[in-house]
Automatic annotation (TrEMBL):
Chief localization: cytoplasm
PhoU domain residues: 21-107, 124-209
Listed name of the protein: Phosphate-specific transport system accessory protein PhoU
Cytoplasm found in the keyword field: yes
Length: 251
C-alpha cells in the first residue's frame, strides 16, 4: 500500500475502534439505567433506555458498513485484520447486550405498572454491577489490547453464572412459599436471566479480544486455556485436560 493508503487505513481503523468503544459506553449506560428503573419507578429512565437501544442499533449498522468498506478498500494483515474481524463479531454481542438491557427496562415498567405489593425481595444489584464491570473491563481490554485482562473477564463469568443460579433458587422458593408472588417472581427471573446473558456476551467479546491480540480462538476451550493463551503460554493439551478432569473427579 502507498503511504497515503496506509494513512487512510490507519484513520479508518481508529475510527472503527473509537465508534465501537462509544457504542459500548452507550450499552453500559443502558444497563445501569435499566437496573435503576427496576429499583424505582421513573418513567424518564424507561424512555432513556428505549432511545439508547435505537442508538445502539444505528451504531451497529454504521460500524458494520464501515468495516465492510475498509476491508474492500484495503488489504489489512496480521493484527489489523484480526481487529476488524473481532469488532465485526463483537458488534453482535454488544447489540444483544443492549437488547437485554431494554428487556430489563420493559420488565421494570411492567412490574411497577402492575402495582403488586407482594414482591419477592431479592437483590440483583450486585449481579448487575458484576456484568457492568465485565463489560467495562472488556472495553478497556479492547482499547489497550490487553489479553490478560480479557481472560480475567472470561473467568468473571463463572461468578455471574453462580449468582444467576442462586437468584433462580431463591425466586422459586418464594413462589412455592407464597403463590401470590408468582407473577412478580417470574418477571424477576427474566431480569436475572437477562443480566446473566449480558455476562455471557461480555465473555464472548473478551474471548474475541484474546483472538485479536494472539490470533488464537479460545472459545469453548475453558477458562484455564483462555488464561494461558492470554499470557502467551501453550494451551493445555487434550491429554492434559483429560488427566486433570480425572484427578478432579477422584478428589
Amino acid at each position: 500500500m502507498s503511504e497515503h493508503t496506509n494513512r487512510q487505513f490507519a484513520t479508518d481503523l481508529e475510527t472503527i475502534r473509537s465508534q465501537f468503544l462509544q457504542m459500548g459506553g452507550v450499552v453500559e449506560a443502558m444497563i445501569g439505567e435499566a437496573v435503576d428503573a427496576l429499583a424505582g419507578n421513573d418513567p424518564v429512565l424507561f424512555e432513556k433506555v428505549r432511545e439508547r437501544e435505537k442508538e445502539v442499533n444505528r451504531r451497529e449498522v454504521e460500524i458494520d458498513e464501515r468495516i465492510g468498506l475498509t476491508l474492500a478498500l484495503h488489504q489489512p494483515t496480521a493484527i489489523d485484520l484480526r481487529t476488524l474481524l473481532a469488532v465485526s463479531k463483537m458488534l453482535t454481542d454488544m447489540e444483544r447486550s443492549g437488547d437485554e438491557a431494554d428487556k430489563i427496562a420493559s420488565l421494570a415498567r411492567r412490574i411497577h405498572d402492575a402495582e403488586q405489593h407482594r414482591m419477592p425481595v431479592i437483590e440483583l444489584r450486585h449481579m448487575a454491577n458484576s456484568v457492568i464491570t465485565m463489560l467495562r473491563q472488556t472495553l478497556d481490554a479492547f482499547a489497550r489490547q490487553d489479553a490478560v485482562q480479557a481472560a480475567a473477564v472470561v473467568r468473571s463469568d463463572k461468578e455471574v453464572d453462580r449468582e444467576w443460579k442462586a437468584a433462580l433458587r431463591h425466586l422459586i422458593t418464594y413462589m412455592i412459599e407464597d403463590p401470590r408472588t408468582i407473577s412478580r417472581a417470574i418477571d424477576m427471573i427474566f431480569v436475572a436471566r437477562a443480566l446473566e446473558r449480558i455476562g455471557d456476551h461480555a465473555k464472548n467479546m473478551a474471548e474475541r479480544v484474546i483472538y485479536m491480540v494472539h490470533g488464537a480462538d479460545v472459545r469453548h476451550t475453558g477458562v484455564k486455556n483462555a488464561e494461558r493463551t492470554a499470557a502467551g503460554e501453550e494451551p493445555i493439551s487434550i491429554h492434559e485436560k483429560q488427566a486433570s478432569d480425572s484427578n478432579n473427579t477422584q478428589s
